[in-house]
Amino acid sequence: MDILKTGIDVDMRDMLGQMSQELEAEFERHVIPFWKLMRDKDRGGYYGKIGYDLKLDREADKGCILNSRILWTFSNLYLFSKKAEYRIYAKAAYDYLMEHFIDKVWGGVFWSVSFDGDPEDMTKHTYNLAFAIYALASYYDASGDREALVTAYTLFDVIEKQCRDEGGYLECFTRHFDAASNEKLSENGVMATRTMNTLLHVMEAYTELYRVDDIDIYQRRKYVREKLLPILTIFKEKVYNPDRSRLEVFFDADYNSLINLYSIGHDIEASWLLDRTVKILELEGSEYDMSEISRSLTNKVYDVAFTSNGMPAEYENGKLLETRIWWVQCEGIIGFLNEYQRQAEKTGGIHPDEDSFKYLNAALSLWNYIKKNMIDKRIGSEWYAETDAEGIPVLNKPIVDEWKCPYHNCRMYIEVMRRLGSYADNQEITEVLYAD
């Protein structure tokens, strides 16, 4: 249900409409051109790093996660806008993935390659595989290239055969798929056998694969569905903590939580991704319906973490990490809009519960925080990765690296535009970000 078609007043409609136009200005004139310039036309793919000082490191390693997220981004920008040039940039990332990141001997994808495409870190990680599937599925949707779909299914098979046990999904492996320690997705002093983060993105990837293969070309779609159902069960029975209305983060092999950690960004991201999976699989009202959990996650984030000064990153042992991270703000906007839509749909959108309007105001507030504090106005830059509680950029954080990518903010842009729906073309932007 388009938000602008629900029972909101004129002032809210205008504020949301203004946000949509500001987003369009920011992404079409700033963010997307920045990432187009990251393309490495000499060696293929995309450059791997720009430091906070805005110096491009042409010889930085190229991470597969960054490449996959760029592939996903340009594929979905094409699907959203139908601008043919975006498929060109998506294909550059796709070709590089197929040529350099796919391990043609042992299967899977490398963690990183050198600037000229030679394998650098040959670690195999379930999280990395998931993002490759996610990107390949979207590229197939954008291009119709069946090789991308075949490769996505091949990586799906790798995860299912090499990266799981009877209890669920494991994390890190050597090139030959022997078990390895999980430094890459463990932090806060623990070494996790399983993580909520990897499970979330396996679900995200499998959902996208299921969605795009709607005509079931290779009769594989039902197997993806069969694997998604137990993932939802694991979230409901093992990962979600009903006593704390949150997802636990790091686990041992038996899903015992290893640390008292509340990841604000992951919980608000999971709130709408869980809903998306349920909707695409048409599981509403079934035993796999996650709406109560999603609502609980969103309400907890709103009550505990949302402020008029952005959203902090996490609580560890009750201590708040005040850092504001770019992707947390983006996922917050989507999550809050998603919760408003859920509540509006209960009444057919005509008379939404007054309490639900707080989520629209929260989304607007986070966008205002991004405009004020996270968008880097320096020529040749994009967004800051992190700011402190006062909105001051954290100086040692790169503008681009294997984790700092276009996936979260461009996805936020696309999701907001789709969820808001139509807005009068002749509405003027009353606050422009970049004047001519």
- Compute the separation of the termini in Å: 35 Å
How would a textbook summarize the main sheet? 3 strands, antiparallel
What's the number of structural domains? Answer: 2
Number of strands: 16
Strand content: 5-15%
Radius of gyration: 21 Å
List unreliable stretches of 5+ residues: 423-436
**Numbering strands along the chain, what is their spatial order in the largest sheet?**
1-2-3
Bin the helical content. 40-55%
Order of helices and strands: HEHHEEEHHEEEEHHEEEEHHEEEHHEH
> In one word, what is the shape?
globular
CATH topology of the largest domain: Glycosyltransferase
Class of secondary structure makeup: mainly alpha
- CATH architectural label of the largest domain: Alpha/alpha barrel
What's the rounded overall pLDDT mean?
95
Number of helices: 12
CATH C-level of the largest domain: Mainly Alpha
Task: Kindly describe this structure.
This protein is mainly α and 436 residues long. The protein folds into two domains: 1-37 and 287-436, Glycosyltransferase (Alpha/alpha barrel), CATH 1.50.10; 52-259, Glycosyltransferase, CATH 1.50.10. Helices cover 50% and strands 8% of the residues. It has twelve helices and 16 strands. It has helices at residues 10-36, 64-81, 84-101, 126-143, 146-162, 196-212, 221-239, 264-280, 291-304, 326-346, 357-374, 407-420, and strands spanning 62-63, 112-113, 119-121, 124-125, 164-165, 168-169, 172-173, 194-195, 240-241, 246-247, 250-251, 261-263, 314-316, 319-321, 324-325, 386-387.
